[in-house]
C-alpha cells in the first residue's frame, strides 16, 4: 500500500484477486502485513487466539501526545485491560438510556431548525449530521450545549472540526505514524495541536469544577467519569447491568484485571477526547449515508416513517429509550448502512507475540500488522447477495447476526470491539 488510493479500495483489490485463499501477504509501506480472508481465521485472531493480537498497533509517546497515548484505542497490555474493564460500566444500555433525554433535546433543536429552514434547495446532509452529532456528543460527553444548528461556527464546533479534520500537516503526520513511526518518536510529533488539547481539557476542567462547586450532578458520561475518578469504579445498577458491563469489559476472566487502577485527570480528558473523535465522524457519516439511501429509496423511507409514527403514538409522542427499542425497522436501516459503508473499513491488529497460523507453516513475527477487511467481506456477493442494493431486510430476521458473525464486523469483534456500540441506535 502506497497511499496513492484509499486504503480500503487498495485492500479490496487484493481481497478480490485472492478470493478463496485463507490469507495473503502485502506491503504496508516498507513493512510486511497480512490480510485475512477466511472467516474461521478471523474468528481465531479476534477471539480464540486474541492473546496473540491484543494491540491495535498504534504507538504514541506518552509525554508528547498523552491524549492519544492514554486513550483506550491506543492502550495495550495490562493498562488496556484495566481501563477497558473500568470504562465498560459507563457504556451499558442502562447508562446510555439515562442520556437519551439529552439526545432527544438535541433532536428537537434539529427539527426546529429544519422546519424553519426547509426549502426546495439541496442540503448538505453531512454538514447537518455533523451539527447534530457535535451537539449530541457535546451534551452527553462534555455536558455542554452550544446549539450548533443556530450557531454552526461556535468554538466547540470549530475546535471539534480541527480535532477530527485532515489538512496537509495532518496528512503528513498520518504518513509518518503509519510508515515511519521511528521519525514520529525522534521528532516527538504531536498528533493534536497543543491549542486544541488545551481547549478541550480546559472545558472539561471548567465543567468538573463547576459541578464540584455547586454540588450539582448531571446524567451524562462526564458525571460517570467523575464517579470513576473519585470512587475508582462505576457502580452497576442491577444484575442485567452488571452482566452487560462484563461483556463490554472485553474478557471473561476477571483475574486478568490487575486490581490496581488510577484514573487521573489526564486519563479522563484523554477518554473524553477519544469519545469525541470516535463518535463525531463515525456517527455523522452513518446518519448522512442512511438519509441518502432513504432519499433514493422512498418506499423504505415511508416504511420507516410509518414505524416511527406508530411507535410514537403508542408512547404519547415521547422519544424514550423504550420507544427507540421498538423501532426495529429503523434499527435494520442502521445495520444495513453499517454493512454497505462500514466507517472503519477494516479492523487492525498487531501481533503481540510470534504466532504460527494454524494449518500452515507461516509464522507471524511479533509486531506484524494483521488486517481484517470488513468493507470487502460486507460487500462480497458470496455472503451478501446483490451487495450494491440497500436492503434493510437482510437484518430483519432475528438470527441474521448469528449467521453473519465474523463476516459483519462494523464495530469489530472480540475483546477489543467498539465499546461505544450501544450508543449508535440511540443517536
Ligand atoms: C457509527 C458509530 C461507530 C462505529 C461504526 C465504530 C466502530 C469502531 C470500530 C470498528 C472499532 C475497532 C474495533 C476492533 O478493533 O475490533 C472501534 C473501537 C472503539 N470505539 Fe467505536 N465506533 C462508533 C462509535 C463510537 C462511539 C460513539 C464511541 C464512544 C463514545 C466509540 C468508542 C470506541 C472506543 C473507545 C474504541 C476502542 C476500544 C478498545 O480498543 O478497547 N465508538 N469503534
Number of separate strands: 6
Provide the gyration radius in Å.
22 Å
Q: Tell me, what's the shape?
A: globular
Ligands present: protoporphyrin IX containing FE
Alpha-carbon distance between the termini?
Answer: 35 Å
What is the count of helical runs? 19
Let me know the largest β-sheet. Answer: 4 strands, mixed
Please state how the strands of the largest beta sheet are arranged side by side: 1-2-6-3
Q: Average pLDDT value?
A: 89
Keywords: Endoplasmic reticulum, Heme, Iron, Membrane, Metal-binding, Microsome, Monooxygenase, Oxidoreductase
Subcellular location: Endoplasmic reticulum membrane; Microsome membrane
Binding site for heme: 418
GO molecular function: heme binding; iron ion binding; monooxygenase activity; oxidoreductase activity, acting on paired donors, with incorporation or reduction of molecular oxygen
Please render the helix and strand layout as text.
Blueprint: H1 7-17, E1 23-28, E2 31-36, H2 39-48, H3 66-69, H4 77-87, H5 93-97, H6 100-117, H7 125-142, H8 155-164, H9 168-179, H10 181-187, H11 194-214, H12 221-231, H13 239-249, H14 265-296, H15 298-314, H16 321-326, H17 328-340, E3 347-350, E4 355-356, E5 363-364, E6 369-372, H18 374-378, H19 400-403
Parallel strand pairs: 2-6
Antiparallel strand pairs: 1-2, 3-6, 4-5
The structure holds protoporphyrin IX containing FE.
Binding site for heme: 418
Cofactor: heme
Keywords: Endoplasmic reticulum, Heme, Iron, Membrane, Metal-binding, Microsome, Monooxygenase, Oxidoreductase
